[in-house]
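Table S2 (continued). Query chain:
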Amino acid sequence: MKIIISGASGLVGRALTAALRSEGHTVLHLVRRSGHSTEPAREGEVLWDPHSATVDVAALEAADAIAHLNGASIAGGRWTPARKQILRSSRIDTTRILVDSIARLRQKPRVFVAASAVGYYGHRGDEILTESSSVGTGFLALLARDWEAEAIRAQTGAGVRTTILRFGVIFAAEGGALGPMLAPFKFGLGGPLGTGDQWISWVALQDVIAMIRLVIANPEFAGPLNVVSPHPVRNSEFARTAGKILHRPAIFPTPAFLLRLAVGEMAGALLLTSQRVIPERLLSVNFPFQFPDLESTLRAILKK
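Corresponding output:
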């Protein structure tokens, strides 16, 4: 197959590229040039410039699948008004441009796979959340809502099967959230955040890649898909498990007010929010999770 990926330099994009190329597929990356560079596309590249709303549409022709993983890091800095605008534009505007380009293609892709996040559900306490659960409130929920609305136009407007990937927290040895989450434990200062009662919906990178490959190949997958392990854990359980594996104490809770003081609004949305998300659609097809439970996942990643 010919598969085009945006956000290919990110954690998921790198792993997905390697997996697909190892199977013999042709993988092209949507890339931007810095500044006013006029350098032409190299082999394996498709040029686009979201700021000027331009895409090399001809290079998109005859693609079997387009995976849109683009988006500035949610945890990349304090959520100032300017930062929030970057987070929205890097998701919503780029998706709009790409979907508009797909609509102009003579030979459209069979599937459009678009990133979103479990932040869509907002803060929901102990409520069990599935793909049919309603959108939540707060900055991340509204961001995800608008992000998904742009993506689904590929299906409603252009007739392309579209799957929305609502990513949980991705655990991987190659980067992502796990390193910062484990750092306090390595210094003997680990423990729950806030009360520790909040649910973490997580997933191993290997399972993420297997899920995306399934979505590309299987025409029954359209609409939202929770990309999470079937076993979310409370923050306090994550702390206990991490401490056990690393042989470090996990008894030093970080008060919520200190988290808010350190990173502002982001603390409530990323560190203290509770989302108990279940991958109902994947469970219904007996998806073979390679890493369904937290302890075996962390041991495999940390080689413990």
